[in-house]
UniProtKB/TrEMBL annotation, chain A:
Residues of the signal peptide: none
Lineage: Bacteria, Bacillati, Actinomycetota, Actinomycetes, Micrococcales
Pfam family membership, one: BPD_transp_2
Protein name: Nucleoside ABC transporter membrane protein
Entries under CDD domains matching the protein: TM_PBP1_transp_TpRbsC_like
Entry annotated with the keyword Transport: no
GO CC field: plasma membrane
From TrEMBL, chain B:
Compartments where located: Cell membrane
PROSITE patterns (UniProt xref): ABC_TRANSPORTER_1, ABC_TRANSPORTER_2
ABC transporter domain residues: 20-255, 292-536
UniProt cross-references to CDD domains, sorted A to Z: ABC_Carb_Monos_I, ABC_Carb_Monos_II
UniProt keyword list: ATP-binding, Cell membrane, Membrane, Nucleotide-binding, Repeat, Translocase, Transport
GO molecular function annotations of the record: ATP binding; ATP hydrolysis activity
Record's protein name: Nucleoside ABC transporter ATP-binding protein
SUPFAM superfamilies assigned: P-loop containing nucleoside triphosphate hydrolases (SSF52540)
Source domain of life: Bacteria
Species this chain originates from: Pedococcus cremeus
InterPro entries for this protein: AAA+_ATPase, ABC_carbohydrate_import_ATPase, ABC_transporter-like_ATP-bd, ABC_transporter-like_CS, P-loop_NTPase
Gene Ontology terms: cellular component: plasma membrane
Record keyword Transmembrane present: no
Topology in the lipid bilayer: Peripheral membrane protein
From TrEMBL, chain C:
Organism of provenance: Pedococcus cremeus
Membrane association type: Multi-pass membrane protein
Annotated transmembrane regions: 28-49, 78-95, 102-119, 125-146, 158-176, 207-225, 289-314, 334-353
Keywords, in A-Z order: Cell membrane, Membrane, Transmembrane, Transmembrane helix
Keyword Transmembrane (UniProt): yes
A GO term, aspect molecular function: transmembrane transporter activity
Lineage: Bacteria, Bacillati, Actinomycetota, Actinomycetes, Micrococcales
Coiled-coil parts of chain: none
Any one of the GO CC terms: plasma membrane
Locations listed in the record: Cell membrane
Protein name (Swiss-Prot/TrEMBL): Nucleoside ABC transporter membrane protein
Keyword Cell division found: no
Biased composition (Low complexity): 1-16
Length: 308, 539, 361, 314
């Protein structure tokens, strides 16, 4: 395998948590629910995904349960912000705190102190027949683990759903003009709750992927700010699945490149190299006006009987 | 989903008796009693007018019917059977359609997308809009509601957007179509065409509830009408059995009150447009000097494209100049530009000889420009701030309300108390939050603020929109007063009656250009409508 | 159509004068109820984990008060909390979300430490004001980057401030491990700043006088917000930016200004941490002040008068948290859960309160 | 209140109350777990009353220690050199309490009530350097660190010394992830080091180490990996070479026993006879393992002195 191929393979792997968490943010946001609990939900996803895989044997079960737990959190956010119209930002932060706390607590309760941390198998690479034998592309894109395919598939599905289905038409209208949607019989609350639920599930999956590809075990620093970056990424991608996919490639590319620069022995203090991804993103944003739109009702609760 | 044809059949075959009955509807918002046991009966195949001053409860009643508001009590009977409408979905499934006062459209969607939104499509799960677009085209043709199904609604004029709203209801197979003040913003010609469509709709067996506060319109199109006042129904009459003056009395309460607010009521009372308000003869301004001069004004709209193309006019001391036009032809941009709120792309504005282009808004304010914006909730008030603070807004840096870096709240309070008295604002005091004020009282506060600047140039944009009759009269009186005190007044209104009533001169704005001018004594509303629609000036 | 994410302002609408008394008691009651419920629920969790809820809560609630030292620690923790809260709520009043308090604090601290180290022999009259001032300036400039990107290029401020936080981590790491690194510290830490740059201590146990400065900042904020022209304009932009603009307020400037002031306060917090608490720059000194600041701001609903009190409550909780783990052996993560529950119940009690109030009328 | 607790009961057989500060979760199976094990041993063996705080950020260390003081703890152990500053500061302020601080050097001015545990990480990295130099075929050795702290530099210097002493021409590439506990970055950077031809990876990370192993696990690459603190062979038995094993039980026991005996201050350097060992190398030539053993023996005997060089590497 040559250098470039292995570099790109690392990038593709690194994209997965960004894609999943940011698409989760996006799908909830397009319906108007601004979730800010990503960092916590990813921790929880990582912890639950690991523990379940360990105890029930099998990463797929782990991923599934993590998704369910994330979905429950997403559902809660959707429910209280539509049913009681509680402030989305506050609830989101509360959920972040709760999820972060529960994640570590669970690990402590289940595993406890040991010098031999239990391990799960990481996800195996699945070669897609035929496609995987294409030079470079085949290795980079088609010799990957199941979650890589899943992340790309989800992005494609979300794009198709948002712009090519009636469901998407309804969904987007809820984030753009909920009153109009409501007046046409689209259930604002139900749409928001579903989207928020799906978003929560994707965020938890993003977290669950980390132990299953990078460590084989849960560690406290495993999410390392990727949840917050997912929020930035949603804005960066203008809340559209296709740009978020591109943005994930950019974020992940920068993350891996920053390390590559060090390995290559470039004589810049490593602290500056580590700032590179963030500074580069800011630079790109200066020219992103064209695509950087935001759902009109993002973060705002809808009250049918209010006049605004 | 039922189609229009099925609806027609159902209605024809259905039992006789009224199509819709609402009984004892009561609705409160917090402590406000908006509807107090209102009854409404709408017959089959009729245009039923719902007439009342602003705040009478017309919209609220229809929102209850449409499932947007849950009533505290009351019942709805449709086609002989009681129905429970919990949300718009229920209403739609019962064949109720509503065109809202403020259009409820997703700006970024096309006409077709807006129309099909919320319906299920045969092409599930994918979104194939060819068939719906065809049906929309067909409906448009049938009811005289032509509109391009593929256009983005954001690019459409108000008149066309309204058609989209009606098409939404028709597409869903409405039996009862509610139109909430649909004529606002339409030219007289468009109003006629709308009325034509409404007749076509009832001819097909549907019924229409038509909300308005213009007596003339109800007389023109309704078969029957219900008059509301202060959240109560005050009467239901057949058009054939009533007269404009009887309706005026019902609306206002009693004859004596009608006397006090004659101007407002009579302005919208005439039996047909055009004949009513050709207005009094021209006022003699003598050789009053020019106070405001606007030259070659080019301003950009929100999307960066020019909204006005070289508008020029002068206003003399004490002159009231009106701008007529269908909303969306550059009014907002023009108003904001001459008020100093929106930057000028090109051109000049001089007030009392002082060039103001390029200066910050605060300088314009100091130079005597006062602006009463169209949307008072959005542009006019600080809702959670007190009346006192709202009155200070705009003058916070002037010496009147300032002591060094501090706001002189004592002076502000004195001023607020005075203003509340002088403008008869109904409020608990200067510290009451502006959000708690009714529309009319809010507008009084805004006027008080505008006038406390002793304006040399007063810009009013739709100043009476949403106000009840006494408040409208109050605004009219203030405008006259300002003119009498030699202010130059620019009045932009979508209400032709109001313009022809108050203005010495009316300019017509179309597509960002002044396309015509009429002076007092030469007003003809159809002619103005002709200009507003962008047709050649034939005079 | 608006294209920015501006959830409605959290500033509570002013209440008519007559109802103020009852509203205040409702507010206090709902806060008390929320805290109580949060403790009950987390108590159940703690018991389920096999620990003693009574011990746990005793630790949480009494650590700050049972010794003068605990109290001093709490007050010193209160300083960065209250400043970071204001760094969040002041821009919030103009409808802007400053999620960058962390970065602004760190950059302020870095600049303060730099001055304190470079001029370490300067006398206190010169050095101390300089250290604080430079911290304030640096924090302001750092926030200004985000404000400028927002104003000039329309870059969403949530995005830019979040990213700038990450950038600041690198800055601190670089300065503390390469530029003025203290090799003996065992952690990215700078050498100490000159003695002249340290805030004087008072009382026993000693408390740094930055506390006084923070109190002054709180008082000044209230006065500026309520009494001055810029404060008035800021509130105007917060309640209705369009109306403010129409009436001559330059909303772009106000928004930029509020972010810069917010950043300056966060930078001030950084400078005080350097000059009062650590005497140097330490990697990680931002702690979780950013998130706590946001939470405090939201609990206080942006009300500048309520901020210091809510911040104190959270400081008690935070100081109590580690005590809980020490004395009751409850995992420290439990505190996160308690805080989450308090937030949740607080919002819920609001809903319940509104309903009760409505039905009692 | 309890603030005066530390002033009373001078001398005599007072009840030992030992408090410890950990920088991360005690369930990390790494540095902090080692700390907790040592503390638990002290509790059992010495009948001490113990308490600990986990995940104490450096800036909070002073406050947390003060709380223990207020609660009457008389031995305070801050487990990690990042706490040393705060620890010696408090030691000066509280002469009646004994502190145990960790450091990577011999302190210039010893305090009367402060035990200094010098972790001497460089010592253990000399044999690692020997191993790396002997095991590498490409002549390229990757060192993965977290923060670029002096102790990390000393490790690289010690390895370089070992290479020089053994006549190896292999070259070390030191890289930093910026965080000892970020496994994903460790995985990415290790993968790239291997891609660059480095065939010995020397990890000096905490939780991040788990990620470094994932870069090799299941891959056929001819690479060996070394780790730090605990036996980490289960993370990748195929490529695992060895680890520098630390044990704080004995040092803590020793120091506390001395403290009980009245010796409240001292310098306790870690070394191959006090808490440090090199795990039996795997996946390398027996000859390589023998060289490592010899290096350890030479250090113990004093035949080799590993230079402690804390200066940055250029
Ligand atoms: N969503 C609401 N919240 C609070 N009060 C409301 C609401 N909607 C209507 N009201 C109040 O109910 C009353 C009736 O208002 P409504 O909008 O039905 O009047 P209207 O007859 O439609 O007037 P207009 O001619 O101005 O449209 C008014 O006092 C109004 O302030
Ligand atoms: N959004 C709202 N929520 C709750 N109450 C409201 C709201 N808007 C208005 N109100 C209340 O409704 C009342 C009537 O408002 P509205 O603007 O319709 O008055 P109105 O009947 O039209 O009076 P006016 O004659 O002054 O125009 C006000 O007193 C106000 O307190
Ligand atoms: Mg009204
Ligand atoms: Mg209405």
């Amino acid at each position: 395998m040559n250098e470039a191929t292995s570099f790109l393979q690392l990038v593709v792997t690194a994209m997965v948590p960004f894609i999943l968490a940011a698409q989760g943010t996006m799908i909830a946001g397009r319906a108007g629910v601004f979730n800010v609990a990503q960092e916590g939900l990813m921790m929880l996803g990582a912890s639950v995904g690991f523990l379940v895989s360990l105890k029930m044997g099998g990463n797929l079960v782990g991923l599934l349960v993590a998704a369910l737990v994330g979905a429950a959190f997403g559902w809660f956010l959707g429910w209280v912000t539509t049913r009681f119209r509680l402030d989305q930002f506050v609830i989101g932060l509360a959920l972040f705190f709760a999820a972060t706390g529960i994640a570590s607590l669970l690990y402590k309760v289940v595993i406890g102190v040991t010098l031999k941390p239990p391990l799960i198998d990481t996800l195996p690479d699945l070669e897609i027949p035929l496609l995987s034998s294409i030079p470079v592309v085949g290795t980079v894109l088609f010799t990957q683990d199941v979650m890589v395919y899943f992340a790309f598939l989800v992005s494609g599905l979300l794009y198709w759903m948002l712009y090519r289905t009636n469901l998407g038409l309804k969904l987007r209208s809820v984030g753009e003009n909920p009153k109009a949607a409501d007046s046409l019989g689209v259930s604002v609350a139900r749409t928001r709750i579903w989207c928020s639920t799906a978003g929560g599930a994707l965020m938890a999956l993003a977290g669950a992927y980390l132990p299953m590809t990078y460590t084989g075990t849960y560690t406290e620093g495993i999410v390392a700010g990727r949840g917050w970056l997912a929020i930035a990424l949603a804005f960066f991608g203008g809340w559209r699945p296709q740009y978020i996919l591109a943005g994930s490639a950019f974020f992940a590319g920068m993350e891996v490149l920053a390390l590559r620069v060090q390995v290559g022995g470039v004589d810049i203090p490593h602290q500056f190299i580590s700032m590179l991804p963030y500074a580069a993103t800011l630079l790109v944003m200066m020219f992103a006006l064209r695509w950087a739109s935001v759902p009109a009702f993002l973060g705002r609760n809808y009250d049918r009987e209010s006049r605004h | 989903m039922t189609s229009v044809d099925e609806t027609r059949r159902e209605v024809r075959e259905g039992a006789s008796g009224p199509l819709l009955t609402m009984e004892g509807i009561r609705k409160t918002f917090g402590s406000v009693l908006a509807l107090d046991g209102v009854d409404l009966t709408v017959g089959r195949s009729e245009v039923h007018g719902l007439l009342g001053g602003n705040g009478a409860g017309k919209t609220t009643l229809m929102n209850v019917l449409y499932g947007l508001y849950r009533p505290d009590s009351g019942s709805v009977v449709l086609d002989g059977s009681p129905v429970d409408i919990r949300d718009p979905r229920d209403a739609i499934s019962h064949g109720i359609g509503m065109v809202h006062q403020n259009f409820l459209q997703v700006d970024t969607y096309t006409v077709t997308e807006n129309v099909v939104l919320g319906t299920s499509l045969p092409s599930w799960p994918s979104l194939d809009l060819d068939d719906p677009a065809e049906r929309i085209a067909e409906l448009s043709k049938r009811f005289g509601l032509t509109v391009d199904p593929h256009a983005k609604v954001a690019t459409l004029s108000v008149g066309l957007r309204q058609r989209v709203e009606i098409l939404k209801a028709l597409y869903r197979g409405a039996k009862v179509l509610v139109l909430d003040e649909p004529t606002t913003n339409l030219t007289p010609q468009e109003v006629d065409s709308l009325f034509g469509s409404l007749r076509a709709i009832v001819d097909e067996g549907m019924s229409v509830v038509f909300i308005t506060h213009k007596i003339r319109e109800t007389m023109a199109v309704c078969d029957a009408l219900t008059v509301m006042r202060d959240g109560k129904r005050v009467g239901t009459v057949r058009r054939a059995d009533t007269s404009a003056s009887e309706l005026a009395t019902l609306m206002v309460g009693d004859d004596a009150a009608v006397g006090r607010v004659t101007e407002v009521v009579t302005a919208g009372m005439g039996a047909a447009a055009g004949t009513a308000a050709t207005g009094a003869p021209a006022r003699d301004l003598g050789d009053a000097p020019v106070r405001v001069s606007v030259r070659d004004l080019v301003v950009l709209g929100d999307h960066g494209v020019p909204a006005t193309h070289g508008v020029s006019f002068d206003i003399r001391r004490g002159e009231v100049v009106g701008i007529a036009g269908v909303a969306g032809n550059g009014q907002v941009e023009l108003a904001e530009a001459v008020a100093g709120v929106r930057a000028l792309e090109k051109g000049a504005v001089e007030v009392d000889g002082e060039p103001l282009a390029g200066r910050p808004t605060a300088v314009w304010l100091e130079s005597g420009v006062a602006y009463v914006p169209e949307d008072r909730h959005r542009d006019g008030i600080l809702p959670s701030a007190s009346i006192m603070e709202n009155l200070v807004l705009g003058a916070q840096r002037s010496v009147r309300f300032r002591k060094g870096p501090f706001v002189d709240w004592k002076a502000a309070r004195r001023h607020a108390e005075e203003a509340i008295r002088a403008y008869s604002v109904k409020a608990s005091g200067p510290s009451a939050p502006a959000a708690a004020l009714s529309g009319g009282n809010m507008q009084r506060v805004i006027l008080a603020r505008a006038f406390s600047h002793r304006p040399g140039f007063l810009i009013l944009h739709n100043p009476t929109r949403g106000l009840d009759i006494p408040s409208t009269q109050f605004v009219y009186d203030r405008v006259r007063e300002a003119a009498a005190e030699h202010s130059a007044v620019l009045l932009m209104s979508e209400d032709l009656d109001e313009l022809t009533h108050l203005c010495d001169r009316v300019l017509v704005l179309y597509s960002g250009r002044i396309v015509g001018e009429r002076t007092r004594g030469h007003y003809d509303q159809y002619e103005l409508g002709h200009l507003m629609a962008g047709l050649e000036d034939t005079a | 159509m608006t294209t920015t994410a501006t959830p409605p302002t959290t500033t509570a609408p002013a209440k008519p004068a007559g109802r103020r008394g009852t509203d205040l008691s409702w507010t206090v009651l709902s806060y008390a109820l929320a805290v109580l419920l949060a403790f009950v629920v987390s108590g159940i969790v703690i018991a389920a984990l096999g620990h003693s809820p009574v011990d746990a809560f005793r630790a949480i609630l009494t650590t700050s008060f049972k010794s003068s030292f605990g109290f001093v620690e709490t007050v010193q923790k209160w300083v960065p909390l209250v400043l970071l809260t204001l760094a969040f709520t002041i821009p919030l009043a103009a409808g802007k979300y400053n999620i960058g308090g962390e970065g602004q604090l760190l950059v302020g601290a870095t600049a303060a430490a730099a001055v304190g180290i470079i001029l370490k022999d300067a006398p206190m009259v010169v050095l101390l004001p300089l250290v604080l001032l430079v911290g304030v300036l640096a924090g302001g400039v750092y926030a200004w980057i985000a404000a400028w990107l927002m104003d000039r290029f329309g870059v969403n401020e949530i995005l830019s401030t979040v990213l700038l936080n990450f950038v600041s981590f690198g800055i601190v790491d670089y300065v503390a491990s390469e530029v003025w690194s203290d090799p003996a510290a065992g952690h990215p830490t700078t050498v100490p700043i000159g003695d002249g740059g340290l805030l004087p201590l008072v009382g026993t146990p000693p408390m740094h006088t930055g506390v006084v400065l923070a109190v002054l900042v709180c008082a000044a904020t209230v006065v500026v917000m309520r009494r001055t022209v810029p404060g008035f304009e800021l509130r105007a932009v917060g309640t209705n930016p369009r109306a403010a603009q129409v009436h001559g307020v330059r909303i772009g400037r106000v928004a930029v200004g509020s972010l810069v002031v917010g950043g300056a306060l966060a930078g001030f917090a950084g400078a005080i941490e350097v000059a009062g608490v650590h005497g140097k720059l330490i990697e990680g000194m931002q702690s979780n002040y950013l998130l706590l600041g946001i939470i405090i701001g939201l609990i206080a609903r942006g009300n500048a008068l309520a901020v210091p009190f809510v911040a104190f409550g959270i400081a008690v909780l935070e100081v109590g948290a580690s005590a809980m783990q020490r004395t009751a052996d409850v995992p420290s993560e439990m505190v996160l859960i308690v805080e989450a529950l308090i937030l949740l119940f607080l919002l819920f009690s609001d809903v319940v309160g509104t309903r009760l109030r409505r039905s009692s009328r | 209140g309890g603030a005066s607790g530390s002033d009373e009961g001078k001398g005599g057989a007072k009840q030992l109350k030992v408090a410890a500060l950990f920088s991360g979760s005690a369930t990390d199976a790494d540095y902090n777990s080692l700390g907790l094990l040592a503390l638990d041993a002290a509790k059992k063996d010495l009948k001490a009353e113990t308490a600990h705080s986990e995940s104490v950020p450096v800036p909070d260390a002073e406050r947390v220690m003060k709380e223990y003081l207020a609660d009457g703890y008389n031995v305070i152990w801050s487990h990690g050199s990042q706490y040393f500053e705060a620890t010696s500061k408090l030691a000066k302020q509280n002469p009646n309490v004994t502190f145990i601080g960790e450091f990577d050097d011999k302190p210039k001015e010893p305090l009367k009530n402060l035990w200094v545990l010098d972790r001497n990480f460089h010592v253990a990295f000399y044999p690692i350097g020997i191993l790396a130099g002997a095991a590498t075929k490409s002549g390229k050795i990757g060192y993965v660190g977290g923060l670029s702290l002096p102790f990390s530099y000393s490790e690289v210097h010690a390895m370089n010394q070992a290479l020089k002493d053994s006549g190896s021409s292999a070259k070390i590439t030191p890289v930093w992830t910026g965080d000892f506990n970020e496994p994903a970055k460790a995985q990415q950077i290790t993968t790239q080091l291997i891609g660059q031809g480095n065939d010995v990876i020397v990890g000096s990370l905490n939780l991040g180490m788990v990620g470094a192993f994932q870069a090799t696990k299941g891959k056929s690459a001819n690479v060996v990996v070394t780790a730090k603190y605990t036996d980490k062979s289960q993370f990748d038995p195929e490529h695992y070479a060895t680890s520098t094993i630390y044990d704080f039980t004995k040092p803590l026991n020793d120091m506390i026993t001395k403290i009980q005996g009245g010796t409240t201050s001292g310098y306790y350097p870690l070394g191959f006879d006090s808490g440090v060992s090199i795990q039996e190398p795997k996946n390398v030539d027996p000859a390589v393992a023998a060289k490592v053993d010899k290096a350890v023996a030479d250090i113990k005997s004093g035949a080799i002195t590993v230079e402690k060089n804390l200066t940055p590497i250029k």
